[in-house]
Amino acid sequence: MTRNNEAESSPDTTPTPDASNQVPAYPDPAASTSPKAPSVPDGPGTKRRTLAGSTWVSMIIGALLLILLLVFIMQNQHTVDLTLFAWEFTVPAGVGVLLAAIAGALIMALVGGVRMLELRRELKKLR
Length: 127
What we know:
Number of strands: 2
Strand content: 5-15%
Domain Lipopolysaccharide assembly protein A: 75-127
Pfam families: LapA_dom
Keywords: Cell membrane, Membrane, Transmembrane, Transmembrane helix
Region (Disordered): 1-48
Helix content: 40-55%
Structural class: mainly alpha
Organism: Corynebacterium pygosceleis
Distance between the termini: 54 Å
Radius of gyration: 29 Å
């Protein structure tokens, strides 16, 4: 006997999943056209993040990192010889590390830019 619309089940039967509870693998973009509500309600105790606030925090962190970098360069003034292919340079050690970091950042930006172009092409194909 069942109680509260529960299905009877015996040890030798397996329950079948209810189709109404299944979520599609890929949501249909045309199904919901209304913007979604924020997950955190705005109340008197909640603070919202703004672009200006995030930019301000990023600038402060960047300025602190720049100060640390300048201190590192000033403390590493002994000269080192750098060789790149056929070129030879004599620069302070701190400047050499700075140049290596800049070269790494440029390579990373190049790879990221190529990936962004790939994603943009894929998005155009889908439209």
